């Protein structure tokens, strides 16, 4: 039986062969083990509802601040210079309202005083 010899080559297959189990018993044991692992994974992934969801008819206000990280605006030079975005702070606020069930709205406003540098002015 080539199948039995291939299972005996495996470390686990040799343990079962030493314990007096046939290759068919080993295959059944692995099939049962695989089914158990798949069932456990399915129960874990689908077992509970989302606990972090928003409640209906609620409001929230968020204030944020941070920094934007700039880079080259183009990959090629323009008039001999590569335009860059100067980094600066950003800040703003958000207002959220959650309607019943699955809908919500968010209004957001922010400001970032970034500017492009190393560009030609256009005044020739």
Brief account:
With 124 residues, this protein is of the alpha+beta class. The chain has helices at 2-9, 11-18, 23-46; strands spanning 58-68, 84-86, 88-98, 104-111, 115-117.
Secondary-structure topology with pairs:
Layout: H1 2-9, H2 11-18, H3 23-46, E1 58-68, E2 84-86, E3 88-98, E4 104-111, E5 115-117
Verbal overview:
The protein contains 3 helices and 5 strands, in the order αααβββββ. A hairpin with a 5-residue loop joins β3 and β4. The protein folds into 2 domains: 45 residues; 60 residues, no CATH class. It starts with a helix and ends in a 7-residue tail after the last strand. By secondary structure, the protein is α+β, with helices and mostly antiparallel strands. The chain is 32% helix and 29% strand. α1 packs across α2. The strands form 2 sheets. Strands 1-3-4 form a 3-stranded antiparallel sheet, with no helix packed on it. Strands 2-5 form a two-stranded antiparallel sheet. The model has no long low-confidence stretch (mean pLDDT 76).
Features:
124 residues, 2 domains, two-stranded antiparallel ribbon, 3 helices
């Amino acid at each position: 039986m080539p199948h039995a010899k291939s299972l005996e080559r495996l470390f686990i297959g040799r343990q079962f062969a030493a314990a007096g189990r046939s290759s068919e018993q080993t295959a059944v044991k692995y099939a049962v083990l695989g089914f158990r692992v798949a069932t456990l994974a399915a129960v874990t992934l689908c077992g509970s509802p989302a606990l972090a969801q928003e409640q209906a008819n609620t409001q929230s206000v968020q204030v944020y601040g941070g920094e934007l990280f700039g880079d080259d605006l183009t990959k090629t030079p323009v008039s001999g210079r590569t335009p860059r975005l100067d980094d600066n702070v950003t800040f703003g606020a958000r207002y959220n309202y959650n309607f019943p069930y699955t809908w919500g709205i968010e209004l957001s406003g922010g400001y970032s005083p970034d500017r492009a540098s190393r560009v030609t002015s256009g005044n020739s």
